[in-house]
Each structure stands twice: as structure tokens, then as C-alpha cells.
Write a sequence for this structure.
């Protein structure tokens, strides 16, 4: 477990900014407690400082995880967001997309969101913008990237993709072996 | 009717006669049939035993009509067919060897017809749909069937014609022909006999098979009888004085009952006795019965994400039939039936609930963690209790989730993050290393690894795979773990200082004995009420072992009483971080042990001492003291007054000790 290097912090924040924009500052400056990012076995964890200090006593080999895992640093130096970061992403998301009940399961099986399943979407979402995908009762299901801007997607056919799938909560079951 | 075809049908007519003469009963013959089926051998002659010729004809027509159906059916059973095909072919070859060539008068048409009818015969057998269908419908036959299916009617006509020809021949009374016919009849009879001999030979095999089956029948009968006998014995034991057979002792009855239980419910004798001894005979039977029935599926609402009312509504909308478990929990729901897999709904994936047995709620409820506390879950996978703790903490403070198995760490982490617990640290230590790794917790939950005798309905393997050794090894590990758990707690915590020990086992070795051991080894803890209003009190004494009187504060849960897994919960309060030396020295024999223990460090374990504790140290110590004082009395009988004073002093000391133990 170690703090992120400057470069790692930059790639991480660049990635986060795609989903939560300037709300990153709310992750750093929290009114309740100081939080920090820590890297442990390629995974980036977001954790309160008090927990982090206690967890120092746990040996490197024995430490499984701490706080919330945001994602992992790939070997090529990129950062890959994991579904485990969804809670914070959903909380601070700039752009959201709601899917209808009949579109829930297809998305949870790892499919893209098609126009027919689109229930609602944040106004003025540009193309290729990171979005959080929720169901109609505001339960976050995952995140992805818009295929078209909000205005463009109005003209689409029902079977056309409006958002590309990146991660969904179905991965807790499907990817349990690789995710953690 | 074709000759060879008749040969195939040969055995039927003479069969009843030979039955009488040769002896094999009807039943045996049916066994033979079974046997033959098992061997994939030629069974068709037997199958059509009693069919007279006209019937055969009828069947043939049916067969033709059903031709296509059979084709599809036989296709399904190709694997069988391949096996049976060989024997069929052999049979056909065998038939060919008979000297049919001598029948010169038989014209070629008839020959062709015979072949056709051979195939018809093959079809014919398929008409009797057996469970092990289609021995005869081989692949090649299938093809033929397909070819013939189209012109089956023509075949049928031709056959009828040929029969008419036969009749015409008879009418002509040509001598040669009639002689030939007689010869043929004789030959047929011989063949039939041969075939019967064959079947008789197989009857021997059949007899073996029958014996075996009869054994099974006996077992079947036995099982229901055993059940009856169990009930009777329980009745007798319930009212022993009046109902007993004077020639039998209580032990005889108990032995019989134990043996029956082991047979009837499939337990090893050892485990059956161990579990039986926990209850009265009648209750034991209830317990064993309850272990055969699955417990209800229950879920726990994750209060970090949703409320029970909302969750119930969402699940009802998905076609799940559920209801609150009971008044004792505000987060539990019992699922009666569900149209969707309850472990894969969007709500489950979003972490709104956790699939968790009702009994698993109890230790966390007993632990009752308060906000901003630091809690350790020593054996946490797969995370049901850990996330419950995190939910009760409302994501404040912190939870250390430890598990020994690295493989289980994944599902543990998955569940923790899915349920949105953000204050956890997952680690992978042997629980026994714990106070050294990190200590000073406000509360510790030790849901100890156990033999699983409380969850037999979930894992019936426990019935046979637990041996006497397991009930020595597992409690030993549990004793080590519980001391580590106790040492990991900070007694000076403002809100906490509690330890909860739980197992999903019902045996005393793993529960009361372990708790009693902990009380003995750590005088700085005491048992407190678990805060759960239901459940049966823990044993204070059990089969000659006497435990600390405060063990009645622990709680036992049984499948037959509470309809949840067998479970045990004990809650300790640690009131001092030090193991005060003065207190220990004042405790006589135990003080000595405590000194030993100190010299070896806090987490060493003395085998001898364990042994003593298993045997009920309290009685032992007290008895020893009395014995000593009596010896003293006899030695100093001259000075009676003095010795009496001494005795009183000893007695006072002993009772004082037991008082101090009650206080602790």
C-alpha cells in the first residue's frame, strides 16, 4: 500500500473527470474526514485516513482490500474504473441516463443501451461523455459512454445504441474472480 | 407367415408348459426378462411371449402405422441401439444357419416375403413401449424403416396373400408338402426348446438378481419398520416404568434406538450418539427430523442502501412472495417462493439485500456494534455478518474483516463492496495471529469455524464425515481463537469491550466447553446477556461436566424449535485489559496454572489443562480440596477442635472461590 505518484494521480483524475467533472473536489475535500487514494497491488483504493492508518498494521501479503476500490492501474499506465466505484460516481455524476424496466436485465448482462430502452437522459449530454446508468427507480446499474449527444439520439432508430456499456453491477457475479 | 419370422416368435407357445415342467416361476421369467434387458441381449422373444399369431399380425399393422414414430423414437436411443444391434444380428445369423435351403418348393416370392417379415418382426417388438425402449431399432433398421415406411401397405397386402397361399397349399394336401410342414413344425419345436434352454440358463442369473432385489425389498420394509420401532422406543423411554419390557434395561433400549437412528437418518453411529445425548429422546427425534427439511430462504435488508419496506415492495413487484421473518428482527425477510432467481435480481446486484440464514443475524445482533466503533470479524467470509456489522455502524468507524482462506477473500470482498460497506479492511490472517497484528478493538465477533452440526439440512455430508478426532481438533482451534479474540479487545473502550462467540454447531464440545475454557483462562471477562430474547439457555452442566453457572446467559438455537439453523451465541464483556496477578494467586490450583500460562505468553495452550477442563475442573478442584481436608482430619483426629476449624476454613475458601467465579 502506497500513495499514488503524481502521474498516477493525474491519470486517475483525468478518468474520474469524464464522469464526475469538477465534483472531484468533493472527493478530496470532505467535510467529515480526510480521505485519500492508496495503491495496493495495482488497485486504487479510496479510503478515509483513519482507516488507512490502522490498515498499515496489516501486512502487504495479507491485505485484501480497504475502503472502496476505484479501479486498477493497467500495466500500460492507464487507469481502468471498476464497478466498485459506482457509489461515488453515481453520487457526483454530471450526466445520467435512465433505462426502462425492460432494459434493465439486458444492460446487467453486459449489453449496450439501445434507444428502445432509454427512459430518460440528462439534457445537453454531449457525445462520448461518461454517463451513469440508472433504472427508473434511481438505482445505479453501471456506467458507460454515450454514443450520441442527447439531441442526436432523438432521431435514432429503436435498435440503435445510445450508450456503450463499460461496467455494470452484474459484474459482481460474472467477474468475481477477476474483479477482486 | 414366414418361417423364420415364426422362429423368432417361437418360444411363446410352449412356454407355459415348460414353466410347469422346468420349474421357473412366472416371476422368475419376468426377472429373466429384466436381466436380459440389462444385458442388452435378445429379449424380444420373451417380450412377445403370450402373443398368438393373429395378435402378432395386428401388431404388425400397428407397427407399420407407427413406423415413423418408432423411427424417431429409435433415433433418440441410438446409443442403446448400437449395443443391442450386435446381439440382434447374431440372432439373425443363427437363424440363417438352420437348413431352410431344403425347402425347394418355397418360391422366391416367399423368400423375399420372409425377409420383409423379419424386418416386420423387428418393428413388431418396438410396439411394446418399455422403459428401456427400442433395443431393436438399430441405426440400420431405422434406415430400412424409413425406406419401407412409404410402401408399408403393399407389404402388408403381400403378407396376407402369402398366408392365403399357405392355406391353399394345405388344402391341396400334397403329401410331400405336408411332410415338409411336419418337419418344419418339429424343427420349430426343437428350436423353441433350445431357446428355452437358453432362457433357463439365464434364469440362473435371474435368480441371483432376484435375491438381490429381495434384499432390497427387505431393506425397504426395514426402513419403515425402523421408523416404527424408533417411535415405539421413544414412547417407551418416555414412560419407562409402565411400558418397559422388564427383561430389558434402559441402556438396551437406548442402544437399539441409537442404532435405528443412525440407520434411518444416515448418521455415523458416533455423531448420532453425540447429537442424541443433547436432547430427550422425543426431542432428539424432532431434531433429526428437522435436519431432513430445508430451512426457509431468508434475506437481510441492507440498511446502507434501502429500507425493508421498499425492498419488500420492489421484490413483490418482481414476483417474489415474502414476509418479515419475525418480530425479533427489523431487517429480515423470509422468501416463500420466487419466480426469479433470488440471488440475481437487479436489487440483489445493487446490494439492497443479502442472502443470509436467519441464524446468522443473531451473533451480530448480540454484538450490537455502536457507531464509530472499531470492530473485528475474525472469520468473516462470505461477508454476511461483516456487512451486517457495517450496516449497524452506518459506515462509520471501521470493520476489519479477516478470513483464513485466501480463496474466500474474493467473495468476501465482492459482497462487502456490493453492499456498499466503505469502512472495511479485508485481510487474510490466521485468526490466531490476531492480537499481534492489530488489537485494541471495541468489539470482536468470532463466528468460529465448526463441525457444522447445526446446518446438517444444508450440508448432509456432516452426518458421516465427522469423526471423533474432529471433535477434539475443532474445539482446540476454537479455544485458541476465542482467547485471541478476547485479547484483541480493548476493555477500556467507552462504548464497547465486548466479544461475541458463535458457532453453527450444537455440540457442547464446541460451545459451552469452549466458553467455559475461555472464562477459566481469562478471569478478566464475564458472560453477559446476548440481548436476544429467545433461544434456549446454554448448558450449565452436561453429562458429568459442570460449567460456570453464568453459562445460562448464552443461547442455543435449534432447527426444530426455532426453524433456523442450529446455532450458539455467547457474549462476553471484558472489564480489564490486565490479567490481574493477585486475583489469580488467590485462586489456588488455578492460580498455579495461570502462572504457567503467563510464563508461556498469553496465547499458548496447555494440553493437560485442556484435558482437565474437558473433565470438569470445577468438580475436580473442589473434590480435591475436600479430600485434602478429610485426610487432614483423620491425621489430626486428636485435636478435633483444631481440625474442625481447619476444615471450615478450607470450606470457606472453596465457597469463596466459587463466589468470585460467579462474580467474574
Amino acid at each position: 500500500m502506497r500513495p499514488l505518484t503524481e502521474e498516477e494521480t493525474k491519470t486517475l483524475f483525468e478518468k474520474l473527470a469524464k464522469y464526475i467533472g469538477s465534483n472531484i473536489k468533493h472527493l478530496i475535500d470532505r467535510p467529515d474526514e480526510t480521505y485519500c487514494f492508496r495503491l495496493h497491488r495495482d488497485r486504487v483504493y479510496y479510503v478515509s485516513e483513519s482507516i488507512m492508518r490502522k490498515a498499515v498494521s496489516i501486512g502487504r501479503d495479507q491485505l485484501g482490500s480497504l475502503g472502496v476500490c476505484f479501479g486498477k492501474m493497467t500495466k500500460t499506465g492507464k487507469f481502468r474504473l471498476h464497478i466498485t466505484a459506482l457509489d461515488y460516481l453515481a453520487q457526483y455524476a454530471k450526466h445520467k441516463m435512465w433505462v426502462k424496466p425492460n432494459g434493465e436485465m439486458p444492460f446487467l448482462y453486459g449489453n449496450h443501451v439501445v434507444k428502445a430502452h432509454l427512459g430518460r437522459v440528462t439534457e445537453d449530454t454531449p457525445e462520448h461523455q461518461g454517463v451513469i446508468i440508472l433504472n427508473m427507480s434511481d438505482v445505479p446499474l453501471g456506467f458507460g459512454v454515450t454514443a450520441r449527444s442527447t439531441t442526436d439520439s432523438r432521431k435514432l432508430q429503436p435498435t440503435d445504441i445510445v450508450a456503450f456499456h463499460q461496467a455494470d453491477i452484474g459484474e459482481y457475479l460474472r467477474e468475481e474472480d477477476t474483479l477482486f | 407367415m414366414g418361417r423364420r419370422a415364426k422362429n423368432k416368435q417361437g418360444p411363446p407357445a410352449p412356454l407355459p408348459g415348460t414353466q410347469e415342467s422346468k420349474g421357473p416361476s412366472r416371476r422368475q421369467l419376468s426377472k429373466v426378462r429384466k436381466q436380459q434387458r440389462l444385458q442388452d441381449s435378445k429379449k424380444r422373444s420373451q417380450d412377445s411371449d403370450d402373443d398368438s399369431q393373429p395378435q402378432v399380425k395386428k401388431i404388425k399393422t400397428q407397427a407399420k402405422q407407427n413406423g415413423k414414430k418408432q423411427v424417431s423414437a429409435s433415433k433418440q436411443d441410438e446409443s442403446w441401439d448400437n449395443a443391442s444391434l450386435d446381439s440382434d444380428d447374431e440372432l439373425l445369423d443363427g437363424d440363417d444357419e438352420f437348413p431352410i435351403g431344403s425347402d425347394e418348393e418355397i418360391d422366391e416370392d416367399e423368400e423375399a416375403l420372409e425377409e420383409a417379415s423379419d424386418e416386420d418382426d423387428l418393428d413388431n417388438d418396438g410396439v411394446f413401449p418399455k422403459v428401456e425402449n427400442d433395443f431393436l431399432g438399430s441405426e440400420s433398421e431405422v434406415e430400412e424403416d424409413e425406406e419401407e415406411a412409404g410402401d408399408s401397405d403393399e407389404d402388408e397386402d403381400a403378407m396376407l396373400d402369402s398366408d392365403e397361399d399357405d392355406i391353399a397349399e394345405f388344402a391341396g394336401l400334397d403329401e410331400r408338402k405336408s411332410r415338409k410342414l411336419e418337419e418344419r413344425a418339429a424343427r420349430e419345436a426343437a428350436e423353441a426348446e433350445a431357446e428355452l434352454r437358453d432362457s433357463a440358463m439365464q434364469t440362473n442369473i435371474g435368480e441371483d438378481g432376484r435375491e438381490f432385489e429381495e434384499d432390497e425389498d427387505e431393506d425397504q420394509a426395514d426402513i419403515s419398520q425402523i421408523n416404527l420401532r424408533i417411535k415405539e422406543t421413544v414412547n417407551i423411554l418416555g414412560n419407562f416404568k409402565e411400558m418397559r419390557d422388564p427383561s430389558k434395561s434402559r441402556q438396551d433400549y437406548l442402544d437399539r434406538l441409537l442404532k435405528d437412528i443412525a440407520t434411518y437418518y444416515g448418521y455415523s453411529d458416533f455423531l448420532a450418539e453425540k447429537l442424541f445425548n443433547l436432547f430427550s429422546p422425543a426431542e432428539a427425534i424432532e431434531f433429526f427430523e428437522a435436519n431432513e427439511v430445508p430451512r426457509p430462504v431468508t434475506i437481510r435488508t441492507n440498511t446502507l442502501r434501502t429500507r425493508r419496506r421498499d425492498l419488500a415492495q420492489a421484490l413483490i413487484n418482481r414476483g417474489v412472495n415474502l414476509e418479515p421473518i419475525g418480530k425479533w428482527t427489523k431487517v429480515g425477510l423470509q422468501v416463500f417462493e420466487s419466480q426469479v432467481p433470488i440471488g440475481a435480481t437487479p436489487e440483489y446486484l445493487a446490494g439492497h439485500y443479502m442472502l443470509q440464514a436467519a441464524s446468522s443475524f443473531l451473533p451480530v445482533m448480540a454484538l450490537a456494534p455502536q457507531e464509530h466503533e472499531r470492530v473485528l470479524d475474525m472469520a468473516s467470509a462470505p461477508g454476511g455478518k461483516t456487512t451486517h456489522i457495517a450496516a449497524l455502524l452506518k459506515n462509520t468507524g471501521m470493520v476489519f474483516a479477516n478470513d483464513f482462506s485466501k480463496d474466500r477473500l474474493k467473495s468476501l470482498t465482492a459482497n462487502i463492496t456490493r453492499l456498499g460497506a466503505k469502512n472495511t479492511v479485508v485481510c487474510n490472517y490466521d485468526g490466531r495471529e490476531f492480537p499481534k497484528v492489530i488489537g485494541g478493538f471495541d468489539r470482536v465477533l468470532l463466528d468460529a469455524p465448526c463441525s457444522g452440526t447445526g446446518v446438517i439440512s444444508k450440508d448432509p455430508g456432516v452426518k458421516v464425515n465427522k469423526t471423533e478426532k474432529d471433535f477434539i481438533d475443532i474445539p482446540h482451534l476454537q479455544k485458541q481463537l476465542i482467547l485471541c479474540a478476547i485479547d484483541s479487545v480493548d476493555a477500556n473502550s467507552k462504548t464497547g469491550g465486548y466479544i461475541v462467540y458463535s458457532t453453527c454447531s450444537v455440540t457442547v464440545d464446541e460451545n459451552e466447553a469452549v466458553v467455559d475454557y475461555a472464562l477459566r483462562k481469562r478471569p478478566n471477562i464475564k458472560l453477559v446477556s446476548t440481548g436476544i430474547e429467545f433461544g434456549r439457555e446454554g448448558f450449565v452442566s452436561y453429562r458429568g461436566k459442570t460449567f460456570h453457572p453464568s453459562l445460562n446467559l448464552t443461547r442455543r438455537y435449534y432447527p426444530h424449535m426455532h426453524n433456523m439453523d442450529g446455532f450458539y451465541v455467547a457474549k462476553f464483556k471484558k472489564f480489564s485489559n490486565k490479567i490481574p496477578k493477585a486475583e489469580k494467586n488467590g485462586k489456588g490450583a488455578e492460580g498455579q496454572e495461570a502462572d504457567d500460562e503467563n510464563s508461556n505468553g498469553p496465547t499458548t495452550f496447555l494440553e493437560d489443562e485442556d484435558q482437565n477442563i474437558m473433565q470438569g475442573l470445577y468438580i475436580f478442584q473442589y473434590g480435591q480440596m475436600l479430600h485434602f481436608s478429610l485426610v487432614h482430619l483423620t491425621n489430626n483426629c486428636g485435636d478435633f477442635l483444631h481440625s474442625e476449624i481447619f476444615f471450615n476454613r478450607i470450606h470457606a475458601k472453596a465457597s469463596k472461590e466459587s463466589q468470585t467465579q460467579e462474580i467474574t
In short: Chain B touches chain A at residues 314, 344, 346-347, 349-352, 374, 398, 400-401, 409-414, 416-418, 420, 422-429, 437-438 (CB under 8 Å). The mean pLDDT of chain B is 70. The longest helix of chain B spans residues 175-238.
